[in-house]
Structures are given as C-alpha cells and as structure tokens.
Specification:
This protein has one helix and 34 strands. It is mainly β. It has a six-stranded antiparallel sheet, with no helix packed on it. Strands 1-13-2-12 form a four-stranded mixed sheet. The chain has a four-stranded antiparallel sheet with strand order 8-9-10-11, with no helix packed on it. Strand 8 and strand 9 form a beta hairpin.
Length: 408
Amino acid sequence: MKKLVRILIVISFWSCNTDDNRQSETYTIAVPETLSKTEFRSSVVVENPKPILNVGKIYAYNDYIFINEKFKGVHVVDNSNPLAPHVVSFIKIPGNEDISIKDNFLYADNAIDLVVFDLSNITSIHEVERLEDVFDVYDYRVPNDAVGIDYSNFNAETDVIVGWTLEQREGVYDEIGIFTSNDASALESGSVGVGGSLARFQIVNDYLYTVGVEVMNVFNISNLAQPNLVHTQYAGWNIETMFHADGYLYLGGTNGMFIHSIENPALPQYISNFNHWEGCDPVVVDDDYAYLTLRAGNECGQELSVLEVIDVSDKFNPTLVAEHFLDNPYGLGFKNDRLFVCDGAAGLKIYDKTNPLDLQLLSTFSNVNATDVIPLEDRLLMISANALYQYEYTSENSIELISTFILN
C-alpha cells in the first residue's frame, strides 16, 4: 500500500493568565470517542429496528432504502410500498458514514476498516468479509463546528475513533502545531444501488472508489465477497463528496472540485481542479455541465450560498458559466431536464436545465427542510433531519408528494 503523509492540526491553549493582554475565549474542540480495536471489530451486529436519531446519508437499492445514522450504522427501510415504508433492521457499524451496494453485497466504512455484508436474505444480513486498516485513522471527518481536535488521549496503535464529542474549552488561541504521520494504515454492470450527492463511495463496474478527507482508495470488487485494495492516492484537499459520470470522478472539496479520470480504473489519474471560495460542496454532473452548491455558514467558511454551473466539456479547463443565489443549499440531483436542489429550510427547488446557461426555477416545495435527494426512474426520494419524503413525477414539469416517513 502506498504510504501517505498526513497533516494533523492541534490547537494549543495557554493559561488564561497571559503576559501580553491576550483575551481568553471559548472554543469548540472535538474529542475522539474511541473503542479498543478488539472491541471495535466485534461490535458490528444486526439489530431490531430503532428510531433514527442523527440522520446521515441515504442510498437506494431495489425495494430498500438505507439511511445512515451518523457514525453509528445503517437503518434498512423496506420501501416495497412507497406509501408505507418501514424500518426492518439496523446494522450497527461504529464509525460508519457511507455505503455502496452491488448485486446484494453491501460495502461500508467501519472507521478504519471496510466491511462487506451479504444482503441476499434481507432478514438474515451478515458480515462476510473485513479488510482491516484500509482507511487511515486520521483521514476521518471532524464535526464542522470544531475549531480544533484534542488527540491527547487517543492511541492510534490500540484504539479506533468511532465518533466525536464536542467540548467548550476556555483558552487563548495561540498557535497551530503541525505534526506529520506516515500511518497508512456511468453505466455500471450488475445491479448497483444509487446514492445521493453527499456520497463518498462510488461503484463503477468492478471497482469501488472511496474518498476520505484527502485520500482516495481503489478496491477491486470483481469478487464481490472478497474485495481487494489495489491503490491509494492523494485525492485533493478536504474532500466531502464524490460523483461518477462518463469515466470521470468529480470530487467536491471545501475549496474546489477535483476531476480524476478512471480510463485506467485501477489507477485514477488527476486531470484538473476548479477552485472556488471555501464552502460546503456537493456536485453532480450531466453531460458537459457540473452543478455544484456552496453553502454559507460558519462551518463552511463563507457568507454566500450559491448554485454554480460549470462547463466541464474540457476536463483540463473547467469553467464557471453561471451562478444562482440560494438560501442554504445541501444536496442536489437531476433527472432528464430537471435539476432538484435541496435548499435547507427554504425547501426543495426544481429547475429546468434544458439550457444549463440559463436555469429556470419551476417550483419550490417550501414546507420541507431538504438536505439530499435521489432521483429514481419513477419517483424522487428526499431526506431531511427528521423525515423521508417520496414524490411521484406527475408530469413534465411537476412532482407530487406521495408519502412522508417520520424518522425520529
């Protein structure tokens, strides 16, 4: 495995009694929640249904919807009747954020490990494989509200980070200590599920691509039950999302969009990046245009919320061609000439993208707090912090709500 240098940022706090009149302030610090590696690797189990308390990402596969409980695991929802979906089980996977599914095999990040589950009998889901230490212990997403991390009680040799506790600490934000570590710890074949625009896992043919904060892993899954890590490489800075289209991976980071070719699927090649101001950044791509949202707010680092349209016909020179101001955007998706944008508390917005240079707002569902969508062939799935909404495409220009499933 290729070893990569990691950069860890630790904030130093000095005594409140300083000699230079600097004022002590309160800062939000992320403290790792940990398990021993022994306990961690024996803690993956399938449990009975339970409320979904901290909604993460969604994934659709056949008649089922999989809803991530942030850093805890995956809720399995039977959606064979979209008018009355119901949870059938919970797969407890400490440290989990993402999944992908192909031909009844589910791949999930279990903090530092990749685990594989057999879904062929949905009433008897079970783990069939585990690749240990394939994800770097420090390439792990930290809560946006944190301005620093306290690793003082974390031992990377014996422990695993499975979540975070946010603490308010008093001190002087004096300096940043930089440390390095060499820890290395399209048209797709088969039946592959569909994730939302916030996904960091993508399956393309016989390969599973995963991306962390700055590292991309490539797994060969030609043997679905026994994946093999074949390559690890630097992906870009502070990556949040990944989208596949026409033989390219588009990675959304807080400072830009990175394009990688998978002409050689086992060895992605960096092509270019499109820089923008710092902001939360999911992206989807259709033909020659990428649609990217940037969200304002303290956790995202900027003041404007926009939908950007980027011409990617020349992969070596992506170019901004239009932008539209929004309120508080999150995920987005498209079906044919319709672009669906989750604009937070401002609701779900539907655009006509027949002319990508001149998007036209068709309608807004303002009574929902939208975070991500999955446009399926016959209906649209949308998730918020407390509900799963399903819409039916009723005509060329409109959709109709058919069910609301309260999650918590």
